[in-house]
Design a protein that fits this description.
The protein has helices spanning 2-14, 28-42, 53-61, 73-82, 84-93, and strands at residues 103-104, 107-108. It is mainly alpha-helical. The longest helix is centred in the first third of the chain and has 15 residues, at 28-42.
Length: 110
Amino acid sequence: MRAVLVLVAAVLVCIWGNIHMASADTSPSECKEERNLLVNACRPVLYGRSPSADCCQRVRVTHVECVCPYVSTKTAAIIEVLGIRKVVKKIEGCGRTVPRKFKCGSITTP
């Protein structure tokens, strides 16, 4: 279940319009903390809910380099089953644009 949460969080971060790049000062422990905060804030999205204000905030501030390395071919296949277009629609519902053809791990947005 945790892997699926990281997967959904990864998709949310990777296709968000305002992608933040990690600075050289972002440590592995800081990245882990960012991922954990993101997963906890966005957990309800897994169950079909719209992203909360807290989830949207976490997506905006989480560094893409902290999440994309965890998007493997296997997790990309799960995302395809969940429906990447559905996830994109939820993100756009938060008022963010989704970059086309953005690559995050094994996922490329439509």
